[in-house]
Amino acid sequence: GIQVEQSPPDLILQEGANSTLRCNFSDSVNNLQWFHQNPWGQLINLFYIPSGTKQNGRLSATTVATERYSLLYISSSQTTDSGVYFCAVVRGSTLGRLYFGRGTQLTVWP
Amino acid sequence: GAVVSQHPSRVICKSGTSVKIECRSLDFQATTMFWYRQFPKQSLMLMATSNEGSKATYEQGVEKDKFLINHASLTLSTLTVTSAHPEDSSFYICSARSPGQEYSNQPQHFGDGTRLSIL
């Protein structure tokens, strides 16, 4: 199957700092999603971004499909941003099955 | 937006009990739903793909007789953990794909998960 690698595995920030999370994938994809898993386990859709750039408040994401990577930017981080950020991709002929990376554990201190 | 409801959110039961988890798409029809398992500090692992009106497709290493999946309608899939044992304790989460012509090009939406603890 396709390999999805996320970096860094862990990130510790002070409130107000900016950060960039990276997702590399080993093959061409039809879909890429970024999720935030909060401490209660809920997976929150952040972006559906197979290509291009999107922004939603303090978060933005860019996917360069031809170079097989995606970036998630978090600006002016807040303690509520803490949790695990997952990148997941879909290959063309897999009925929409998502392949997940191992995630980035983000901790934001006040 | 698309909403997926998963119930129950938490289950604690004795070893040997069978546990049923429901996954419902509330405002859309889902011909395909997915069941994932997540161990602490790890990523999500796909267990099976649930197809409405047909048998589920299980990933390699997942016991079909242990994890029974039924997708009887376009809005409901169930996962039954049969004769559960402590090693089955985990976080189980389902997802459904928004309807669309190009299945792989639609975002997936997740339920809130079920934390299963077998004593």
Descriptive account of the structure:
The complex is a heterodimer of chains A (110) and B (119). With 110 residues, chain A is mainly β. In chain A, 0% of the residues lie in helices and 57% in strands. Chain A contains no helices and eleven strands. In chain A, the strands form two sheets. In chain A, strands 2, 4, 5, 9, 10 and 11 form a six-stranded mixed beta sheet that branches. A five-stranded antiparallel beta sheet of chain A has the order 1-3-8-7-6, with no helix packed on it. In chain A, a hairpin with a 4-residue loop joins β7 (59-64) and β8 (69-74). Chain A is globular and about 45 Å long. The termini of chain A are far apart. Chain B has strands at residues 4-7, 10-13, 19-25, 32-38, 44-51, 57-58, 67-73, 76-81, 90-97, 108-110, 114-118. Chain B is globular and about 40 Å long. In chain B, strands 2, 4, 5, 6, 9, 10 and 11 form a seven-stranded mixed beta sheet that branches. A four-stranded antiparallel beta sheet of chain B has the order 1-3-8-7, with no helix packed on it. By secondary structure, chain B is mainly β. At the A-B interface, β4, β5 and β9 of A face β4, β5, β9 and β10 of B.
Element layout with pairings:
The complex is a heterodimer of chains A (110) and B (119).
Chain A: E1 4-7, E2 10-14, E3 19-25, E4 31-37, E5 43-48, E6 52-56, E7 59-64, E8 69-74, E9 83-90, E10 98-100, E11 104-109
Parallel strand pairs in A: 2-11
Antiparallel strand pairs in A: 1-3, 3-8, 4-5, 4-9, 6-7, 7-8, 9-10, 9-11
Chain B: E1 4-7, E2 10-13, E3 19-25, E4 32-38, E5 44-51, E6 57-58, E7 67-73, E8 76-81, E9 90-97, E10 108-110, E11 114-118
Strand percentage of chain A: over 45%
* Mean pLDDT over the full residue set of chain B: 90
Strand segment tally of chain A: 11
Quaternary status: heterodimer
Question: Biggest interface, which chains?
Answer: A-B, 26 and 24 residues
**Radius of gyration of chain B from the CA trace?**
14 Å
Main attributes of the structure:
heterodimer; A: 110 residues; mainly beta; six-stranded mixed sheet; 11 strands; B: 119 residues; seven-stranded mixed sheet; four-stranded antiparallel sheet; 51% strand
